[in-house]
Amino acid sequence: MTGSGLFLTFEGIDGSGKSSQARMLADHLRDLGREVVLTREPGGSPGAEEIRRLVLEGDPDRWSAETELLLFTAARRDHLERTIEPALAAGKVVICDRFADSTRMYQGLSRGNLRGLVDQLHALMIGREPDLTLLIDMDPQTGLTRAKGRQGTEERFEDFGIDLQEKMRAGFLALAAEFSDRFRVIDGNRDMDSVAQDVTEIVQQTL
Ligand code: TYD
Question: In the chain, what are the domains?
């Protein structure tokens, strides 16, 4: 199903700065003349953006872990069909802020161990991984402070607090080891430009 495009994802805990890095990378690659689609999850297509509101706003206990997993997967399926696959087929670079690794972490780890279910559903309904995943690793407290500072309405997950942040950080590092063929870990505890320079170098090697 994949064309000649390149599928890049950014992952990291809340407040890790990955969204800014994704934007900076998109600008850089466009300057080099590449066609880039910058997108995000949950969301990235009209239907998936509607689901985004359902999963990110409101009470932390709004959904059971299983229902939440289904909603994230439904959003991802729509995003894949409508945005990601057409862009890759057209030879574009797709940069996605979070993808299935976030589900492996947030739905797979945060409320009991649902990783098996996450993987089964992924195999059934999504069935593809990024070509390259950039993990912006970040001190959990710094990340939480930054995320809280944004004061938006999308804080269902930020509400879970520092314990979740720490668990997610360790989980992401373990995931990077598990999928070491496609993951690169970048130290996010530095100024944005230094982080961006590492990102650019790694992506350049892949291109
Ligand atoms: P995001 O918009 O990337 O927020 P931030 O910029 O603060 O990192 O992600 C919003 C939240 O959605 C984040 O707390 C993680 C959560 N999430 C999941 O729980 N599962 C998923 O599959 C995805 C993609 C995100």
Answer: 6-206 (3.40.50.300)
Entry pTM: 0.94
Ligand 1 pocket member 41 (CB < 6 A)? yes
Instruction: For ligand 1, say whether the CB of 101 is within 6 Å of any of its atoms.
Output: no
Identify which of 40, 106, 133 to mutate to test ligand 1's pocket (most ligand atoms within 8 A of the CB). Answer: 106
DSSP string, the chain: ---S-EEEEEE-STTSSHHHHHHHHHHHHHHTT--EEEEESS-SSHHHHHHHHHHHSS-TTSS-HHHHHHHHHHHHHHHIIIIIHHHHHTT-EEEEES-HHHHHHHHHHTTS--HHHHHHHHHHHT----SEEEEEE--HHHHHHHHHHT--S--TTGGG-HHHHHHHHHHHHHHHHHTTTTEEEEE-SS-HHHHHHHHHHHHHHH-
pLDDT per residue as tens digits for the range 188-200: 999 999 999 999 9
